[in-house]
Amino acid sequence: MYLYNSLSRKKEKFVPNHPDVVKMYTCGPTVYHYAHIGNLRTYIMEDVLEKALRYEGYNVKRVMNITDVGHLASDADTGEDKMVKGAKRENKTVMDIARYYTEAFQADCQKLNIKWPDIVEPATNCIDEYIHMVQTLLEQGKAYFVGGNVYFDTSTLEKYYVFNDHDEEDLATGVREGVEEDTNKRNKNDFVLWFTKSKFEDQALKWDSPWGVGYPGWHIECSCISMKHLGEDLDIHCGGIDNAFPHHTNEIAQSEAYLGHKWCNYWFHVRHLNSDSGKMSKSKGEFLTVSLLEKNGYDPMAYRLFCLQSHYRRNLVFSWENLDNAAAAYEKLIAKIATLKNEGEIEPMMFARLKQRFAKALEGDLNTSVAVTAVYDVLKAKTTDATKLALIADFDKVLCLNLLSAAENLRKKQAEEEAANADPEIDALVAERTAAKKAKNFAEADRIRDLLKERGIEIIDTPQGAKWRKV
Ligand code: AMP
Ligand code: ZN
Predict the structure, then answer these.
(1) With left for phi above 0 and alpha for psi between -120 and 50, is residue 115 left, alpha or beta?
(2) Closest ligand to 247 CA?
(3) Kindly report the CA angle at 151 between 150 and 152, in degrees rounded to 5?
(4) Which atom of ligand 1 approaches the CA of 239 most closely?
(5) Count H helices, E strands: the chain?
(6) Ligand 1 pocket, residue 221 CB under 6 Å
(7) Ligand 1 pocket, residue 239 CB under 6 Å
(8) Per-10-residue mean pLDDT for the chain, 471 residues long?
(9) Mind giving me the DSSP string for 4-20?
(10) What is the pTM assigned to this prediction?
(11) What letter would DSSP give residue 344?
């Protein structure tokens, strides 16, 4: 499998550190509000990555954090804690907010067929691990304690900007427009590992530490949670592209300083879902959720298909029209699959050839749009329905679009509709018309058709024979 690695800025052959397991880490949600469909694009594509690796035969162990403390309104260590902001907004405690939105996130994942990672760890569960890492970095001389906070000292690194060639001035934390400079920092890129003092005093969750009562910085969560469950090396670390800087940059800085060796080999970043006015974000106020899509009559699978139809390394523009197109494509696809009958034998050669097309698409940096096209190739292929159904079941282990169950539901619905509309008298008239047509008695056939028309019945001639419906 080839994957684009943000670290080398190249597509690289994926080779895990250990033959028996792929260690995968995903930055989880900050649970101060509902996830918007932009966040969920990232989780869908990470889900597809995990499933594609499993499809390729790897055993994957995936860990995700739930950020319930320490993520400030600005990624650059300033502003209010997002969780405190959420609690104030809803007049609830931080823990109530965390519980409520974690459950809401889990429900969204379920609706979108996003597998819940093997281990999901709330950040507030790992305070001892953060204290241990911060203490070690202080002992190593890679962190310092000033003004009540512990900072990571980026001047101890050979290279800080690992992901991009941006001008340092553009990225400099603390000197960005609208962000107040923290005068405690020795270097502009230094970041907080542990807070005991900040300009807001109403931080809800605080813990004892060697540096006073306080709380962890956001970046340290992911380093420690990953090491707690996956050990000192990691194969793939995932997140949305906005996480690359400063979050992932800081994760690498502190993890590799702490470990004294390389930490993670592959960095997988998903580009953003944008609306007409730019990046979809919660801080902008209005944002779209899965529930809102459902309220507007969309099947969550239409959104999953919408995401799969584009490559994860391209920005994706959301519009209702684009979603309508995906919803129509999904409906059509399911209707086609619903016409397949479980007939014939599976043809091994055809099965292997069509499967290879699908696997190749995934192996080429997770080309999901080509993988979706492989389903249409199956439907068009000259092979038995049994082969087609087996292939669709196989592909859907990765696509997870409910292709077979939705088709089955559609068939049931159609059968129920037919049963509800059953009328032996009309069936008899339709049969009489068919017989008249066969006997070339077209006048009689037309007479019956007109008679039925007067009663609000339309005859539809199909390759399977004449059917009728009420109009
Ligand atoms: P958050 O809950 O804000 O920590 O974000 C959760 C995940 O969603 C992170 O991996 C972000 O990088 C990602 N993300 C945030 N906004 C977008 C967006 N508009 N499109 C895609 N991913 C996003
Ligand atoms: Zn993270």
Answers:
(1) beta
(2) 2
(3) 130
(4) 10
(5) 16, 18
(6) no
(7) yes
(8) 96 96 97 95 98 98 90 62 83 90 97 98 96 98 96 95 64 43 88 82 82 91 98 98 94 98 98 84 77 96 98 96 97 97 95 98 98 98 98 98 98 89 89 93 94 91 82 82
(9) EETTTTEEEE---SBTT
(10) 0.89
(11) S
